[in-house]
Amino acid sequence: MAIIGLWFIWFANIKVMSGASYIAIDCDQDISSYPIGIVLGARVVGAKVIDGVYADRLQTGVDLYKKKKITKILVSGDNGQANYDEVDAGKQYLLDHGVLASDIFLDHAGFDTYDSIYRAKNIFKINRALVVTQNFHLPRALYLSHELNIDALGCSADLHGYANINQMKRREILARVKAWFNIAFAVNHQYTGETYDISGDGEQTWDQAGY
After folding, report:
1. What does DSSP say about strands 128-133 and 49-50: parallel, antiparallel, or unpaired?
2. Which positions of the chain have pLDDT values less than 50?
3. Residue 144: φ, ψ to 5°
4. Could you tell me if residue 107 is inside a domain?
5. Which of 30, 35, 108, 161 is the most buried (most CB within 10 A)?
6. Phi and psi of 13, rounded to 5°?
């Protein structure tokens, strides 16, 4: 059984790592403009204090927006508890760094990467996007995007070194297994609801969009 378990982990990781082929070499130079960038949430302290990983994702989104590589930004993260809110913290960072309010879309029910990408497709009707996160995370996010029929390219948010990078990479091994399982068994997201047009005003999504 142990051998079968190890083989399954290896198999799922190989499948999910295929997403690495969609990582852009240079998002500043080598890509055309996309209608939206999906910034995937990460840890905040309390309700508002953003850690380095998340700050780098948001700053990369800001940079792509100011360089007109993306027109809108979807911030997708966990706001499952009253005292924990990745999404509004991300929104405030974008506003503070010059992104127009109307260009910021929020998804409060992006509890993990699969949820975020599934809802990007089914709630926000996104067909083409740049996905913004760190290199260790991009293959999984892009694998999910393409399996869910989003024409996605990945932009690395590795603006700094991270003290816990080895821990994050180890956690990613099992996260890839979960991602493969979700795709293989066509798992539906438990939170559905109203759909949104990303060509419109993002502020319509600021109040617990579709959640």
Report:
1. unpaired
2. 209-210
3. -60, -40
4. yes
5. 108
6. -65, -40
The answer to whether the CB of 65 falls within 8 A of the CB of 103 is: yes
Phi, psi dihedral angles at 132 (to 5 degrees): -115, 115
Report if residue 182 sits inside a domain. Answer: yes
Nearest CA among 11, 14, 37 for reference residue 24: 37
Cβ within 8 Å of residue 94, ≥6 positions away: 58, 61, 62, 73, 75, 104
pLDDT, one tens digit per residue, over 37-58 is 999 998 887 656 688 999 999 9
User: Whole-model pTM?
Assistant: 0.94
Residue 187 domain boundaries: 16-205
- Summarised one tens digit per residue, pLDDT across range 66-78 is 999 999 999 998 8
Report CA 106 to chain centroid distance, whole Å.
12
Give the amino acid at 67: K
CATH of the domain at 138: 3.40.50.620
If one counts the domains in the chain, the total is 1
